[in-house]
Design goal:
single chain; alpha/beta; 5-stranded parallel sheet; 4-stranded parallel sheet; about 15% strand; binds 5-phosphoarabinonic acid
């Protein structure tokens, strides 16, 4: 929290440079908690921006164009400290930050979250004297949102990380090994999804009915996709935002190939209150809804969709959370992480490694003629 306060005091914007597990968790939590249109308003907290998760030249040029107009800080997150997307972005950001503030002042608003000893991010942080946080050795990137990887950006954005962690701790107790199976949400979820997979349901669609949860889908896809997709096995994790995507993917889900099941994350209570207004002319015929909560309409859409999808041959799992606040999101994170470990073991894969992500990197470096990769460069050129 002390580092978060420094960044809050010194910066209008903070760029989180990281990819995969090094940014998706923070992005998911901040999006779920923040006012959707807050970025259009003045705020006492810095705007949190995400980069280092792509190599889009336009994306990076446009980001830099914006950063030239504000005072910004950087949270450079990389467990290995060598990830290309993040490292290229960090180079650009560091250069600009030093141009704006001078090297000494820039060092006060650049923070590293990385390995204790290994990797370029660690070497740079130690050499430049950046404040740094350690990613524990035994925590893989996609399981790291409850370490400084997620907690620091979330705190900078102004959210209560103690409540987030408390929610996770309470869920840790609720999913302890001695908890009976039927009372253990993570074991039940893991068991059901594996039973469905054995039954030919190869795709799991995570559905939400709250736009703020779009990035929950992105985080969850990485968590389950990278943990389970190996050895020629694994449920393919997909996600949809409803009711929005009922007007695009809805047709496929209702009537397409019957290899899918759906897991709905349902939020019981909205944080605000809004009713459908009455209209004198009633041209749309919706006066029967006047005075009723928007959330009631949403909940009936959810129930109606569930019944339709089940009728259409799409099994439905429902995960309910009380509301979108730090405590309940902490619970949800821990439940999904615990279930992911259990599920991987049921599938008989190692859920904590990701050997498959190296293949593209090897080819990219060979194609870019990285020194030391001469043999690979020759071999790959012969294929083109
Ligand atoms: O879950 C994982 O291990 C990966 O998705 C990593 O988080 C991602 O590849 C980024 O790696 P790093 O933090 O080493 O830059």
């Amino acid at each position: 929290n002390r580092t978060a306060k420094t960044l809050q005091r010194e910066c209008d914007a903070v760029v989180v440079a990281g990819i995969g597990g090094s940014y998706l968790g923070a992005r998911m939590v901040i999006d779920a908690l923040a006012n959707t249109f807050g970025w259009l308003q003045e705020s006492k907290y810095p705007r949190i921006l995400f980069a280092g998760n792509n190599i889009g030249e336009d994306y990076l040029s446009e980001l830099i164009g914006y950063l030239k107009t504000v005072s910004f800080g950087i949270i450079n997150i990389s467990k290995s400290g060598t990830t290309t997307e993040t490292a290229i972005t960090f180079r650009l950001l560091k250069t600009l930050c030093e141009q704006q503030r001078g090297k000494e002042e820039a060092a006060k608003v650049i923070v590293a979250v990385t390995d204790a000893k290994r990797g370029a991010a660690r070497v740079t942080a130690d050499k430049e004297g950046y404040k740094s946080f350690i990613i524990p050795d035994n925590v893989g990137g996609r399981f790291s949102v409850l370490t400084p990887v997620g907690l620091l950006p979330i705190a900078v954005a102004g959210f209560d990380i103690a409540a987030l962690v408390k929610g996770a701790q309470d869920m840790e107790a609720q999913t302890a090994p001695e908890v009976p199976f039927m009372e253990h949400p993570a074991a039940v979820y893991a068991a059901i999804r594996n039973a469905l997979y054995q039954d030919g349901k190869k795709i799991e669609i995570l559905a939400n009915y709250q736009p703020k949860l779009h990035n929950l889908g992105e985080w969850w896809k990485q968590l389950y996709g990278e943990s389970e997709g190996k050895d020629g096995k694994g449920i393919f994790p997909a996600s949809v935002d409803l009711t929005t995507d009922l007007h695009s993917m809805g047709q496929w889900i209702q009537d397409g190939e019957r290899t899918i099941f759906e897991t709905v994350v349902s939020v019981e209570q909205p944080n605000t209150c809004l009713e459908v207004p009455s209209d004198e002319e009633n041209l749309d015929g919706l006066n029967f809804l006047a005075g009723r909560r928007i959330d009631e309409v949403n909940k009936m859409a959810e129930l109606g969709t569930k019944l339709a999808h089940v009728d259409g041959g799409v099994p439905n799992i429902r995960l309910s959370i009380t509301k979108l606040d730090e405590y309940h999101i902490g619970q949800l994170i821990y439940m999904f992480e615990r279930a992911c470990g259990i599920s991987g073991l049921l599938l008989e894969v190692n859920p904590f490694d990701q050997p498959g992500v190296e293949a593209y990197k090897k080819n990219m470096f060979a194609l870019l003629c990285k020194p030391g990769c001469e043999a690979e460069t020759e071999a790959i050129k012969a294929r083109l």
